[in-house]
Design a protein that fits this description.
The chain is of the alpha/beta class. 45% of the residues lie in helices and 18% in strands. It has one domain: Vaccinia Virus protein VP39 (Rossmann fold). It contains 9 helices and 7 strands.
């Protein structure tokens, strides 16, 4: 299944409309389990940064939902949000201007060619590394871009069923992925190679999270790929499925997950 056409559909629908975009962000935070984890980590790490105005690099900002969360939750931060999709960034920039959010800058940039030096206190990279061929180069660029004691937070699918791949014959649920996912050991090793010595990580989307993803995300995406008209059926579907879906998300965050389909890595320079 192609994920980008669905994303592009929503991008055209919400564009820079403040009400629609804020509603969309709220829905993303509610439905996507990774957002539950990432926002919890950000709320823990950002207050620990000693800078008066922490500089944050949102590497592959997409719809800019995490940039929005940080800018509202931590207004003293200064955020540079980059992506390779000019239309996404243009819409996000207009929305942030309409919302009078002034601590965010948007820029079209390729993570393989960035050349920042000791500039950021925190780099956030959510669901990006699996799309990149030369991942070691990007990780090295992240290391160079961070200040000493700066943090790198990465969220990516894991090799344990990430992208819905469970054996060699399976095809990724999301065709735009360059790789199906990482193991904690592989990503740790690559981070060590580029200079990171302090690395920790954990799996997400365990038994409960995987089931929640299938109920709340995968099945509706399959429907929308068949016909956009099925969008009108989704409210009825979620009326029935939402309580179970949210319960499974919550249970995932409270579980000790040995091998999950998602992986979060936190590295410190």
């Amino acid at each position: 299944m192609q994920y980008d056409p669905i994303k592009n559909f929503f991008a055209k629908f919400i564009k820079s409309n403040t009400f629609l975009r804020k509603t969309f962000y709220w829905l993303l935070n509610l439905f996507f389990l990774r957002s539950w984890y990432i926002r919890r980590i950000l709320k823990k790490i950002i207050p620990e940064i000693k800078s008066v105005h922490p500089k944050i690099f949102d590497a592959g900002t997409g719809f800019a939902q995490y940039t929005y969360f940080i800018s509202k939750k931590f207004p003293s931060t200064k955020i540079l949000a980059v992506d390779i999709k000019e239309d996404y960034l243009a819409d996000a920039k207009e929305f942030f201007q309409k919302s009078n959010i002034k601590n965010v800058e948007f820029k079209v940039d390729d993570l393989k060619t960035i050349s920042y030096k000791s500039e950021f206190d925190l780099i956030l990279c959510v669901d990006v590394m699996e799309h990149i061929d030369d991942d070691v180069l990007v990780l090295k660029n992240f290391y160079d871009a961070l200040k000493t004691d700066g943090y790198l937070i990465i969220n990516t699918p894991s090799i344990y069923g990430g992208s819905d791949v469970h054996n060699q014959d399976d095809k990724s649920f999301i065709e735009e992925h360059f790789r199906n996912g990482y193991s904690k050991e592989e990503l740790n090793d690559k981070l060590n190679r580029v200079g990171f010595a302090n690395v920790e990580g954990f799996y997400t989307y365990g038994f409960f999270g995987d089931k929640a993803w299938r109920i709340g995300i995968k099945f509706p995406m399959i429907l929308l790929n068949k016909s956009k008209l099925l969008l009108f059926i989704l409210p009825v579907y979620y009326l029935v499925a939402l309580p179970l879906f949210l319960l499974f998300n919550y249970l995932d965050t409270k579980s000790k997950i040995q091998k999950g389909t998602g992986l979060i890595i936190i590295a410190k320079k």
